[in-house]
Structures are given as C-alpha cells and as structure tokens.
Specification:
The structure is a homodimer.
Chain A (H helix, E strand, L loop, with lengths): L35 H23 L5 H19 L7 H11 L6 H12 L4 H22 L9 E2 L2 E2 L1 H5 L1 H20 L13 H14 L6 H11 L8 H26 L4 H33 L15 H5 L1 H19 L4 H16 L3
Antiparallel strand pairs in A: 1-2
Protein name (chains A, B): Geranylgeranyl pyrophosphate synthase
Organism (chains A, B): Zizania palustris (Northern wild rice)
GO molecular function, one term (chains A, B): geranylgeranyl diphosphate synthase activity
Chain lengths: 364, 364
C-alpha cells in the first residue's frame, strides 16, 4: 500500500477528549471475549451518547426525524420512477427494483440533498444525484453479497439479490444499476427547468467525475479488494490497512454524495472543499461507530452464546485501539466535521450538522 | 418482450440482392449437418465477399489496414495511460490492465474516432470516448465470461480474467472498468485544450448519457439477460428474440461508439441521427456476418469431426433464414449503412465506409 487517504494523518493527532477516568487502561484486543464488567461500560457509553444526541437535537428547532422521513420518501419516489416495473427484460427490472427499493435510511441521498441546500441550491437540482448515489450504494451491496465475495444471504432482513434471482442476474443487476446511476445523472430530463443553463452541464460533468472516481480503483472497489485480501489472514490487520478499507468502502461514497450535492447546488470551490473535509470526517466516523456498535451488540449477544468465548474474526477499531480510544477518535472526527460547517448559515447547515450527530450517535 | 428496436422492422422488407440462381431453395435449419456440396458454396460466397472487399478498397486511395493500425496504436496508448501499473491496489490494477490490454482490433474506438472526424471534429476530441467504449466492451466480456454466466476459460487465446485472478477480482475488475470509463470521459484533463469551451460540457454530458444507456437494461445487460434466458431452452429461439439479443449485446455499443464520436466532434443533430442509423445497420450486420462465419467455420471443421453430424445448439441467422437469405440480409444492411454516409464528404467518410465493408467482408 503506497498512497493512503490524507485523513489517515488525522489519526496520529488525536488528543483524549473523554475524562481520563473513563479511558480504558489497555486496548481491548478480543472484544467478544471481554469480561462482563467491561461490557457493561460499553452500554453506559452508548447511553451517554444517546443522551448527547437528544441534547443536540433539542438545542435547535430542527426536527431530524421528520427531515429524514421526507427526504427518504422523495428519494424513494425518484428511485421508483427510474426503473420501469413491467417492461422487458422483466427479470432484470424486477431484480433491480427488488434491490433498490428494499428500504434503508437513505443517508447518502440525504447528505447529497443537504449539501446542495447548504450552498444555496434548490434540493431538486441534486435529486438525480441523490438517486444516483443510492443506485451506486445498492450496486456495491449486490456485488459484495455474491457467493464469490462475502457470500451473504440476508440484507436488511430480506434474502439477497442472488438468493432470489440467481447469481448471473445479480451480477447483471449490479452492472445495470451502475450504468443507470450515470444515465440518470446525465439525462437532461432528470433536472428541473430552473437549473442555470450556462453552468449546469459543466456541473453535471464534474459531478459525474466525482461519482465515477469513488467507485473504481480509487473507491468502493479498491476497498473491497483490500478487504478480501485481509479476510482469513492469520495476521492482524494493521490500522493503516483497516483505515484504507473503510475510507474506500464507506467514506468515498459519502464524500462523493456531499461533494456532488454541493457542486450541483452551485457551491464555490472553497465551499465544496470544506464540505469535502466534512464528508471525510463523517465517512470515517460512520465506520468507527459501526465498529463500536458491533462490539456492543456482540457483547449483548454473548449472553445467548455464553461459553463460546471466541474472539471475533473481524478487525475493528475497538480491537486495535481499545474502546475508549475509539470513542475519542469518534468524538474528534465529529468535532472536525462540525468545524467545517461553522462558516455556513446556521439554519441551512442544520441538516448536515444533525446528519453528523446521527452518524455519531446512532444505535444501529 | 414488448418493445423491440426499430431496426427489426427492416427485416421484413429485405428484397433478394443475389441472383435468383444463387438463392437457396430452402432455409438451412441445421448447418452443421449440411452436405459437402453446400458447404463448398459457403466458401465460394465468402471468397466472392473477399473479392468485393478488395475491389471496394482499391476503388479509393484509402489504406484501411494502415488506418486501423494507427488508430489501434493510439487507443492502446490511451488505455495504457488510463490505469497505473504499479499503484495499489495492485491485484485490481493488474487484472484491469490484463483484460483491457489483451489486444483486439479496437473496432469500437475506431468507429468513435471516425465518426468524430466525419462531422469535422478533431479525432483527439473523441479519444477519451474511444478509450471509454473499449473499457465498457472489456467489462462486458469479463463479466460475460464468469463461471456463473457463459463460463469461458479463453478469450483472444488467453486465459480469461477470472481464470487468472479469481472470480471475486473478475467481478470487481468489471465494476472498476465500468466506472473508469465514465471517470475517463468526465475528467477535464482527458481532453485537449482546443475543445469548444462553451459547448464541450454539454457534449460530454450527452455522450455520457448515450454510453450509460447502451450498457444497462436498454443495452448490453439486457441482451445478456435475454441470451441467458434462451440458453439451454429446448424451443428454437424466434427471430425477433435473436435480433433483440444481437441489437442489445452487439449493436447498442457500436451505435453508442459512433454517436458519441459524432457528438464530441460537434456534429449537428441531423448528422448525429444519420450516423446513428449507419451504426444500427453495421451493428446488426456485425452479428449476421458473425453467424455466417460461424457456419462456414463449422462446416470446415466438420471434416475433423466427421460422423458426429450434430446440429449446433446455437441459434444463428443461417439456421433461421438459411444461408442465402442471411447473406441477402447482410448485403441489405451494408447498403443501408452506405446510404447513410452519402450526405457526408467522401474523403472524410472513407474510414466509416471502409469500416462497414470490413465488418461485412471480414474473415474472422
């Protein structure tokens, strides 16, 4: 691994944000095998986080749940309209719709729409891109779930695409969703008539470039390749490799979602780059929190499988840094993200601020 | 199957172009089991075609072989430069380069560059698109060759991507090539500085839309899905279904290659649509000739497997229409394609004319 993401550097300058008393005395290398007392402390930390989220939420007038519900509904309408239900080839369209309309919180589209709004754009200008980033996200899930990859049978509680439609259709569904995302962004009729006729085409080209870059060998695919290389390895995954995987598998598409929204909203280059930094922070934050939740969940579930006492195979931040340091890292990333929003109008920035809080403090 | 390609209609208005004496008395439904005398006639027809190609070639000053060699070399340079050889993730980049730089005639890029030139554009304006259509073509080969699809071990005489790098990397290589094609087209630094700054972004967006459309459920993927549905079916494939497969698996990307070249070259809408009709004709022609060559090859190979006398499993035009009618269809498609070029400057149209002849009269 030669070149890593610039954010990686931020890891080395984390200063402890939590009280020293709360800090773990040693890194936790095998969470699943952790004693009960320590597992209790995880829950306490998560509960504190939930309280902080509630506090953050009540501090403004912004109703995050209503906002997310409205955006998800609008994005779902756009996604539903993007694939014909009854046209041939029926098997393909059905599989595409099955995978794309399977629910989900639509975090990436919400980030895209919120970034468009924070730079002063109309959300409708970014709706085709919001749909596109969800298509790309779904494509990556469909291909990652394949038997030759992670071999997952369930996704969001439903059988995965290849289980229902077979492996060939699942490969082709991913391909079709990927090309549809670009088709959807490039079609003139995807956009409302009030976009700036002179500047719009250049903004679309730039957005498509950002989207394309975050998928291939600089993004999702690169992350999956390195993840596959690490899987089953007897050696522990070094932290720079772990961060490479997360930055590519998770953060790259979150970054593209935000940046594309800002471009289509007509943001200045300086605004776009500030939002890029915001997105990189929450992208990594997303994964650190995922790892913390994984540990918490594992320890709760341990009751059911008591006696097994097996260390989990998966490398996580808590395993490498210890849980307290992982939480400190998360706090630092959240504070970095918030800082990037400080130059924007407070009211317009509320969705992005609350999205960062949500990613930091979510319970699943 | 509800809506088929408009070109399908052309099938019903084929008038016999070959002398009545040469017409087959009955359609040939099982070519592999054909008597020797008839197999000789195939060779004669192919020889006549070769003579016609030679005649067409000598009728102008245009040196087709030199032209194709120069274009292939330029496209190969662009493809080589588009993927770093030594950067991580190494396995992915290596697999991408292995598949993309495996040789091939580069017919699609040549069509793209020739279409750009015929409308008065500089070929360099279309070079990023010429590279992109080859990336898309390669992606479709890599995914179609997968064990869960056509399960092919060899491609252009070399082991296929999944044989060399494994199935997961092959799936991801296809995904990365697909996204790279769009990244390559969207990057500003892919283009020379003399493109029309005002009109260029809109042309790129329109081109990306054409490329994206020909891949998914209106193009390559749709063709592969219907092809998979037909494979192993005991029923003979009806001709409209066969044509659907060919128009989507083969013609759609040839059409996009030509149309994108014309768009980036600054062609008028009328020119672009005429070139689209040209491309649709040669797209179907490509497949009809493939089928005729398949039959000829089969009949020649029959000597080696004499006594087997098995009808081939694959549905082809000769099987459905008979060989003579297939040739008539091919002649008609070639004449349609030539007709679309008649309004263009003769010298500038020479590459497209010769590409059509090449597709019609090629021997492999």
């Amino acid at each position: 691994m030669a070149a890593f993401h610039p954010l990686v550097a931020s890891r080395v300058r984390i200063s402890p944000l939590l009280p020293a008393a709360a800090a773990a005395t040693a890194p936790v290398y095998a969470c699943a095998a952790m004693p009960y007392a320590r597992r209790r402390r995880f829950s306490a930390i998560v509960a504190t986080a939930a309280a902080a989220a509630a506090a953050a939420s009540s501090a403004t007038e912004f109703d995050f749940n209503t906002y997310m519900g409205e955006k998800a509904a609008a994005v779902n309408r756009a996604l539903d309209a993007s694939i014909p239900a009854d046209e041939p080839p029926a098997a393909l369209h059905e599989a595409m719709r099955y995978s794309l309309l399977a629910g989900g919180k639509r975090v990436r589209p919400a980030l895209c729409l919120a970034a468009c709004a924070v730079v002063g754009g109309r959300e409708a200008w970014a709706m085709p891109a919001a749909a596109a980033v969800e298509m790309v996200h779904t494509m990556s899930l469909v291909h990652d779930d394949l038997p030759c990859m992670d071999d997952d049978d369930l996704r969001r509680g439903k059988p995965t695409c290849h289980v229902v439609y077979g492996e060939p259709i699942a490969v082709l569904t991913g391909d079709a969703l990927l090309s549809l995302s670009f088709h959807h962004m490039a079609r003139t009729d995807s956009y409302p008539p009030d976009v700036d006729a002179d500047k719009h085409p250049a903004r679309v080209v730039r957005s498509i470039g950002e989207l394309a870059r975050c998928i291939g060998s600089e993004g999702l695919v690169a992350g999956q390749v390195v993840d596959l290389e690490m899987t089953g390895s007897a050696e522990p995954v070094p932290i720079d490799r772990l961060e490479y995987i997360h930055l590519h598998k998770t953060a790259a598409l979150l970054e593209a979602s935000v940046v594309i929204g800002a471009i289509l909203g007509g943001g200045s280059n300086e605004q776009i780059e500030r939002l890029r930094m915001y997105a990189r922070s929450i992208g990594l934050l997303f994964q650190v929190v995922d790892d913390i939740l994984d540990v918490t969940k594992s320890s709760e579930e341990l009751g059911k499988t008591a006696g097994k006492d097996l260390a989990s195979d998966k490398t996580t931040y808590p395993k490498l840094l210890g849980l307290e340091k992982s939480r400190e890292f998360a706090e630092r990333l959240l504070s970095d993200a918030r800082e990037q929003l400080s130059g924007f109008d407070k009211e317009k920035a509320a969705p992005l601020l609350h999205l960062a809080n949500y990613i930091a403090y979510r319970q699943n």
